[in-house]
Amino acid sequence: MTITVRELVHYPVKGCAGTATDSVRVVGTGLEHDRTFMVVDAEEGAFRSQRTHPAMAAIKVTVLRSGAALALSAAGVEPLLLEVDVDGPRRDVSMFDHPLGAAVDQGDTVADWFSEVLGAKSRLVRAAPGFDRDGWGETPGKLNFADAHAVLVTSTASLDDLNARIAARGDADAVPMDRFRPNIVLTGKDEPHFEDRVRRMTLGSVELAHSVRATRCSVPLVDQTTGLRKGPEPVRTLATYRREAQYGNRVSFGVKNAVVCEGVVGVGDVVTVHSLVTP
Hints:
This protein has helices at 108-118, 156-169, 235-238; strands at residues 4-10, 19-20, 23-27, 30-31, 37-41, 60-64, 69-73, 80-83, 90-95, 98-105, 122-126, 151-155, 184-187, 198-203, 206-215, 243-244, 250-261, 263-266, 271-276. A hairpin with a 6-residue loop joins strand 7 and strand 8 (80-83). By secondary structure, it is mainly beta.
């Protein structure tokens, strides 16, 4: 079977809605514009997440003029056009209690906008010039403000299998792929979770290498259209067959990858697998 790219999505502001695209440049830190911005607590600089602020899912972000501006919109507030400050005042930020250094604060207007939408005092920051952050795992790679790795890959076969298991329980609707917030969705292979076994692959002119399986918290419980927590699926069903003992018995879905060769990838591109481990 021929494996191809089904979907490409980048998330300009960490935790906010994704933007689907037909073609994208992939740089060393992931899809271009992916998680370049982050919403943080106005006092402590700690990142905000759908884990505690599910409404972030329904905040729409459009990158304009190659990243020079952002268009922001959310229900109940006026949309905002942000002229991006690439190299302005700095603010120390952190993620999961780990300091990330100084990021570029984007000013009071957008800070007030996010504070109103989320009901909590917030600031928006951008990765500063020269920002250098390592991932971890089999191939660590580099990244911006993603949790710990550059590119999240899932497959339609894995989602189909999960939804079949949910249906067998008879008490919940199927979940869409956006619950898992992937960057790249693959199709054309019938084996669920075959992406777990891929160690190196080329998509378009981009080469990715395996870092770790993607363990999951509460974010897949959030409806990515409404920004409301629904639960208990898909986490409840994943817990019956996708526990990862080496990661505190958390459930997993999808894999995280590092970028080892930059380039361009498009929807429909054929995926060439260079290295595959046995089940």
